[in-house]
Amino acid sequence: MTAPGGAVLAADRAFGRGGVSVAPLAFGAAAIGNLYAEVDDAAAAEAVQTAADAGVRYFDTAPHYGLGLSERRLGAALGDRADVVISTKVGRVLRPAVSGGSADSEGFAVSADVERVWDFSRDGVLRSIEASLERLGRDRIDVVYVHDPDDHFAEAMDGAFPALDELRRQGVITSYGAGMNQSEMLTRFVRETDLDAVLVAGRYTVLDRSAEEDLLPACLEREVSVAAGGVFNSGISASADPRPGAMYDYAPATLGVLDRARRIAGICRDHGTTLPHAAVHFPLRHPAVRTVLLGMRSAQEVRDDLDLLRNPPPEALWADLEAAS
């Protein structure tokens, strides 16, 4: 079918080395795991199906998101569709909670009947993948990321990456990589392992371009595909007019960050566009970035995000932003 937005959602961008292709817009499924607020089953399913029917082909989830809820909802909504790419993550194994029924302490509005345990070992990866396959209702996974190994570099190198390499050879997964909120360690993984892709959150945005100093050049050199997440830096760039109290990287923005965001928003207005519009398109200008991952919790959010992708900002905007940086 023809997707709203036309060619902008053509799934013609190679992602990894296994023959997987994605469109410029990808569906981040943390929100349908009840991130910060509850989403009912029907609304979650409608969001996923609206995105898939509109041409979104890449859906990213993790056991961490809602203690498995995101994976279960995504699997149920997509069913046996073969025209989609699914990524999930390893590093947090879910096990029955010692005292179940309490509220989750990591930002998801779910009952903590299970708990997360950090585990980047080979055995942990295999158990995590087996459980994810069951929750997703799939017999294989397209992309698997090592998730947030900031304090577990050695364990990831010795356990997780060799295990994922083995699973790739066996055909259980198509590609593997790492997903983090920093670029420095991701760059090490790109240079020291045989991963296919990385998901970098918040480090290549209109407000934080740090990944272009280390990670993105390494990815171009090693032919590693990049998914850019966190393009709104926790919310501040999701508004055309950032105000005091806006969130930046999971905390209230400092006055300096707020001032910079407001100056960028003003430049966007001068070019007849908005800060959110620029925030979504900015990462896609880099040749290493194959897709932008946006969190979506409703069909309306899907439609709003599709609208942001429909037409790029005027080319002159980027030169003015560069001059102001």
Automatic annotation (TrEMBL):
It holds the Pfam family Aldo_ket_red. GO terms for cellular component: cytosol. One of its GO terms (molecular function) is oxidoreductase activity. InterPro entries: AKR (IPR020471), FDH-like (IPR044477), NAD(P)_OxRdtase_dom_sf (IPR036812), NADP_OxRdtase_dom (IPR023210). Residues 24-322 form the NADP-dependent oxidoreductase domain. It comes from the Bacteria. This is Aldo/keto reductase. It comes from Tsukamurella strandjordii. The lineage of its organism: Bacteria, Bacillati, Actinomycetota, Actinomycetes, Mycobacteriales.
